[in-house]
Specification:
about 190 residues, Sufe protein. Chain: A, 2 domains, 8 helices, 5 strands, about 45% helix, globular, binds FE2/S2 (inorganic) cluster, BFD-like_2Fe2S-bd_dom_sf, iron ion binding
């Protein structure tokens, strides 16, 4: 816990907007395969597309709770189009930063909000577990898992997963790994 700043601790110890909305307009649930966290978000949206109420339930670590808590505050009263634009970077910044190994937890809140908005707008996306490294059949969850467990550089991801060491020497997968590293570790 020593790595968390005061604001993170406050949102972790006194999370805002916890619970369920029974007659929610939309619900979004995401799990982070990397560390087993689950977040569920409930939105009450009025006829003008304004988020009147938002609550969450999270099964996860302190950082997952704190990011969920502050994310609900950031989208409450906002239009759904603004909520769509909330990035995990903005969430982490609003918290005043997170320890690097916890950055991936912030992705959960932004993803859950987007999923709830998909639900509201009737958008169905396929569960993504894209193959990242075609040569070796290494999928996205494997790479995410490595990042969540401390592989914060390309070299470390390669060491943990073997990506880029196949026949094409990373020509087809290096860029995809870089994108994932940026998503989770860009702060
Ligand atoms: S696709 Fe990863 S090494 Fe070729």
């Amino acid at each position: 816990m020593g790595d968390y700043n005061e604001k993170v601790m406050d949102h972790f110890m006194n999370p805002r907007n916890v619970g369920e909305i029974e007659d929610a307009s939309a619900v979004g649930e995401v799990g982070n395969a990397a560390c087993g966290d689950i977040m569920k978000i409930f939105l009450k949206i009025d006829e003008n597309g304004i988020i009147q109420d938002v609550t969450f339930k999270t099964f996860g670590c302190g950082a997952a709770i704190a990011t969920s808590s502050i994310a609900t505050e950031m989208i409450k009263g906002k239009h759904i189009s603004e909520a769509r634009e909330l990035t995990n970077q903005a969430i982490v910044e609003a918290l005043g930063g997170l320890p690097k190994q916890k950055i991936h937890c912030s992705v959960l809140a932004a993803d859950a909000i987007n999923k709830a908005l998909d639900d509201y707008e009737g958008i169905h996306r396929e569960e993504e577990n894209e193959i990242i490294c075609q040569c070796l059949g290494i999928d996205m969850k494997t790479v995410e898992h490595a990042i969540a467990h401390g592989a914060f550089t390309m070299e470390q991801v390669i060491e943990k997963t073997g990506v880029t060491t196949g026949a094409c020497k990373g020509e087809r997968c290096r860029e995809k790994v870089e994108k994932l590293l940026n998503k989770y570790c860009s702060l």
